[in-house]
């Protein structure tokens, strides 16, 4: 029988390295050039500061040797490193060659400013570094370019587009602890709790009030953000879904959540006492796309042989309810707020989703092997009492 260790050893060093590097978050950058060799551009993730001091600030860029841009950058001797904003993934995709059938020229994807040294700059990039090539060395499959920065063009607003875990993302502020001593001694905030952002507003205010005297630090986020906070120790407990939890976590089920259909009050399906998945086959869907909700809700319909027609997506619970109330489609939800109207006052109706639909569970989760402190135990007891009364 092959052990897990044997299986790991049979994976090549290259594959282990590539998998490992997929977890290293980096900015997404489009490197452009123009000059006697011609204009070119390519998306790269390997870009880093080398030094701010010396004759000129320097940065490092790696470009695959088979990219047509590589030889042109070296021959032209100039380049612009455009660091993209979080809403500019389409520029990254264009210069990665994803839209060849739609773009005759990848530079058509956005507006450009010609820099004095020659290379084009994305007009509204988060930041752009105008550079000259100091040196170029072939290492493995890539050219490692050492670049002298001649000018920096910064936007006033925006956040960087991030690539990690083989997908795009965006940065999010995380406040640092006030002192290392407080972290090591477990002092400062008595308890840090995570809560899924869509149902947090319906649970946490009452719990915090009932736990008067307990200093609670609250972190709201989606499933990935909250599980990462548990693993890192940023939070001790989290109220989340049981979907996708693995053996790194221990959890206690608090409630079974059954999916339902939310509709505008004047929607024709609102006249039915319950709704079958097939009734939704031709209807536009407004998807609550906060991980893991998006996959869960679409999976419910797909399991019944219905491919949802997704018209709109939002990670905001109230935005989804508002779109439904304005007749933009139906949605599937599990959290049932007490208000039967949208945020802007339009009526909504909820109808049971009939058929064999897999429920989800709201759970209290913590890192496996972690012994809960007294504050966490008190919070857990109050959660059990609250859901026992529900």
Automatic annotation (TrEMBL):
Keywords: DNA-binding, Transcription, Transcription regulation. Residues 21-170 form the Flavin reductase like domain. The keyword Transcription regulation applies. It comes from the Bacteria. PANTHER family: HCA OPERON TRANSCRIPTIONAL ACTIVATOR HCAR, TRANSCRIPTIONAL DUAL REGULATOR HCAR-RELATED. Belongs to the LysR transcriptional regulatory family. This is LysR substrate-binding domain-containing protein. The lineage of its organism: Bacteria, Pseudomonadati, Pseudomonadota, Alphaproteobacteria, Rhodobacterales.
